[in-house]
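Summary: Need help interpreting a holo structure output

Steps to reproduce:
1. Submit the protein chain below together with the SMILES for guanosine-5'-triphosphate.
2. Request a joint structure prediction with the ligand placed.
3. Inspect the structure token block that comes back.

Expected: a single structure record containing both the chain and the bound molecule.
Actual: see attached output.

Input attached:
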Amino acid sequence: MQINWYPGHMAKAKRLLQDQLSRVDAVIELCDARLPYSSRNPDLNYMTKNKARVLLMNKADLADPSVTQQWLSYFKSRGLQCAAVTAERNAKEVLKIIERLTREKVERAEARGLRRTIRVMVVGVPNVGKSTLINRLHGGAIAKVGDRPGVTRANQWVRVGDYLELLDTPGMLWPRLDDPVAAKRLAYISAIKDEILDTYALAVSLLEDLIVMSPECVQKRYKLTDLSLRGLELMEAVCRGRGFLLRGGELDIDRACAVVLDEFRDGKLGRVTLETPAALKKPETKEPEPEEKHGTDGQA
Ligand SMILES: Nc1nc2c(ncn2[C@@H]2O[C@H](COP(=O)(O)OP(=O)(O)OP(=O)(O)O)[C@@H](O)[C@H]2O)c(=O)[nH]1
Ligand SMILES: [Mg+2]
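--- attached output ---
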């Protein structure tokens, strides 16, 4: 599913989301722990302001743990419940978070002698791990998963135990595409297809960002001796460092670009986070207070 977020599409997706939101008890928002700003939806805060809600920074296994802590403090200071998780490993912890998030509703129903099914919607930009998390919570491969955007194509309710239902959603959240830096970073993590930039421009830009955020891992992986290189010279140094040569000794720039993107996406460069709260241009507006208070916070 390649969605071009024209205003018409956006308005339709927003209506659909609003409609779904009115049917659920709580919302789990997933963002990518390597890009906690760029991988969040700009309008979700407002749209979910009256819902029990938690932000899960997923793929924490790929992110720098100390920067993850900075983000957790940042979100907490803005009044947002959040936790850092790795979908494959933290199903139990996420289940506890959901229990805490919906406890008041469950208890209110119980006080009236009812045991009702709680419905939770899982939202997030494409490829962030929504279906993976839902599969782990369900305890089996019920939702299709893949390492590219647009794998889930339709809403799907998944039952977890007797009293919980989770709604898996396609990556229908329009990300921060109006912000070119965020859009580029979303392409680094395969949240949007690479097509917004050509592979060469994307790989060079990623490498330049990595040199800023985590110079040692880039230096080691690509055997770079000069970290002041930029653009084509930088990619040529990667080719030389890794021996990416064509017949005749010419540098294989295309291969170097593909390898840089793949290795970052696979976590082969080590644990890197590409943005910090301190580098945000302007702090975001405070998260709206949810109607109910929920006590979830911290690393799962
Ligand atoms: N390293 C790591 N990989 C993860 C984690 N969670 C999911 N993945 C991988 O991320 C890729 C995308 O996962 P999906 O669950 O399909 O993502 P999604 O959000 O459902 O994607 P769409 O349906 O396309 O919106 C898959 O290759 C997963 O194996 C995680 O916590 N850590
Ligand atoms: Mg999915």
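--- end attachment ---

Reviewer comment: Residues 91-111 form the longest helix (21 residues). Residues 290-297 have pLDDT under 50 and may be disordered.
Status: needs-info
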